[in-house]
Amino acid sequence: MSKHYGSIAFTDAVVGVQREYGSDGFYGRKRVQGNAAPGIDALTDDEREYLAERDSFYLSTVSETGWPYVQYRGGPTGFLRVVDDHTIGWADFRGNLQYISTGNVGGDDRVAIIALDYAHQRRLKIFGHARVVTVAEDPALVKSFANPDYSAEVERAVLVTVEAFDWNCQQHITPRFSAAELEPHLAPLRRQLADLQAENARLREGLGSGDPAAR
């Protein structure tokens, strides 16, 4: 947990529940620490490496009605990038044209992100302030987030100034694996199957020809 995460997440209502269940002593110290040193927390190499390996994350924004809105964002591995010690960003690909997250950020720039690594049961939670950058505003910046190997249209870029983050516990994360994560394990099995099929074909051919060596 970064220094200022508790000062954002642990509101009075949250502290009241923590006190009820006995975890206020542990988390209370983290909240006091964050309040005593106002500022934002710098990302470390751990966060940089982790985010560079992600191909998806969940983004939460706040609407003008006060309702939270959670959206899944996906793309090629590495489309979510660490720009500098305090900033992350990604290409905003054309989707269903609802633009709810984009509109929400225009009214309230506060966002929360959760990036999951299902295969290794890890998750990183981030608080930050988002800014949408259009092609008209900064074409070079938007282009820098595009991936030439990914055909989706990049409509804009999103930059998030990170306020705080927390590495959450592994409990209750169901392991799941993408095709890319499974491929190193499946490829040898495919080769083995192909070899066995070829051997079987040779044996069948030998039996059909009456070759004693195939019997």
UniProtKB/TrEMBL annotation:
It comes from the Bacteria. It holds the Pfam family PNPOx_N. Residues 44-142 form the Pyridoxamine 5'-phosphate oxidase N-terminal domain. InterPro entries: Pyridox_Oxase_N (IPR011576), Split_barrel_FMN-bd (IPR012349). This is Pyridoxamine 5-phosphate oxidase. It comes from Mycolicibacterium hodleri.
